[in-house]
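To the team - copper (II) ion complex, inputs and output below.
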Amino acid sequence: MMQRPQTLPMLQTINHKSSLAWATACFLFCNMMIAPVWAHAVLDRQVVAPGQALHLSIAIGHGCDGSGTTRVSVTIPEGIIVTKVDTQERFKSQTRAAKFEKPWTGAQGQVVEGIKDITWSEGLLADKVRGEFGFELYASDDLKLDQVLSFPVVQICEQGERRWVEEAAQTEAREKLKAPAPVLKIVKKEQAHLDIRNARSRVTPNGAPVAGGYVTIRNWGDKADRLIAATVSVSDQVEIHEMSMSDGVMRMRALDKGLEIPAGATVELKTGSYHLMFIKPKRALSEGEWIDGTLTFERGGVVPVRFKVDGMGGNQGGHAHAH
Ligand SMILES: [Cu+2]
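Output:
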């Protein structure tokens, strides 16, 4: 626990000069590991806007319990019009077309039928080798904002199979799934370049002066964007901080101009680096709960985000099971 008398002066000096006390606070409350989410079948993109053309890749991170992958197939959700399938170096691709459940507005008007699934077969991807299976698509103009589209993937191996087909509309429920289907969320056009993943916080005792917020932001666009503000339900004030080592001491400072997310770059807010600081949380944060918040970007505007509260060890919960 922090010593109470130190709390208020620390909060007042935050925008000016870092203090050892703040560094200590951050060391205590920001310390968390963020593991990559490559254990599942995952999509490289996770948001798309209605009327947007996009290249999408399904990444397969491993085989089935040591045995290599021989076949991968994906089911295309309604509203997604596949326009081209990539050549895959190890596999032959095949598509199946059928009538859509209803006509969808495509790039050149109404489309009544199209590719419903893609299968890559007659190949072998060794167990530990990462493979990418890509295609180009057009997201129908008729898709509704905030809708979450599932792309169920079936992976057949020399021995056994993995079915990444479980569906859940909410992030929270999806994290609990053992074998979630990859999803693409429909967002506003001005936010389609922002890929925001793995928002996390960490258990924090009642009365703690600060709590850390962590998230991975990728900018798929060709222009830089900037994270300029954040909010969270448990705190009236959220700051964007940078932490760095100088003279052997960890120091942190508030980034008054926000944090740039360069075009094409991924910026990770994590322990010992950039992070969000929830100032004076109104209550304790307990493991496994989800906290509502927002991230505001210069170009993208306000993006809702949910922070999952991890335990002290920074266990990745839903992602840890695979290995
Ligand atoms: Cu901080």
